[in-house]
Amino acid sequence: MKNLSKIVYSLVSAALLLGVVTLNSCKEDEKLPPIGGFDNADQVGETSLVAYWNFDDNLKETKSGATPAYQNNNSFTTGIKGKALDLNDGMLHYNTIAALNSLPSFTVSAWVKISNNGTKPTMIFSLTRPDEWAGAINMMAETGWKAAGNDTLNLKCLIVPKIGTESTFQDNRNEPSKGGDQAFKSPNTWFQLTNVWDAATSNLYVYANGKKISNPEWEHRLFNGNPIGALTFFNPTQVVIGAFSFNVPSWGKTPDAWMTPMKGQIDEIRVWSKALAPEDISSLYQLELAGR
To answer: Which domain, by its residues, includes 278?
Structure first.
């Protein structure tokens, strides 16, 4: 009887153990509910993603494998997802990434943390033009427009495409005096900034935290009375993160006094070769905010 009891006990224990293992396996296999039909941020516009910096303890652009040709005053800190780039009057410069030389439409997204209102403009991401301070694409914060300590941000996208042999400066930003979503505030906290050019409509948009904040009066862009359409750039382009192109020593240019490198943090820079739909931008924000 004792042997029988031992056998029964062993069988019951094994069954209970199997139940625990099975339950744990089920839990591991469970998926979080999709957001906008996506399980993670990498799925948003997946086939059109042409550049991505995650800054998880490395400075590599993951699609091309490009590493900085020049870097200054940068380190890593805790980001919105994993690690982030921390700049203390710092910058990164990358030589030409071929996939970025042609972007008829584009979306650029990044998580940013800045607290330097009352100082000079902040260049977050620039796709450069040869020998010019303003790049073909410029993701900026007009941090010089507000008094120090003011948590209202002016967030701007400036593009300078090639039209024939000419260039044309085109920009859009939020106008805080209009209130609502345009009065965007970020008191030294992380926020997601997204710039979009839609060639089909010739519209330029700025989003923050998944919502459109740009001024509708400035969205539709014309050159000599005609919609701009698909963008053409002066090539070759290069990438500068956290500074103006004239801050790159190898360019041999003297930056103006207002062209200073960034103080702040940047994470999850993504560039797509298309205009993401508003609902996809909202989903991207929610997914990255959730660490997905």
So the answer is: 50-289
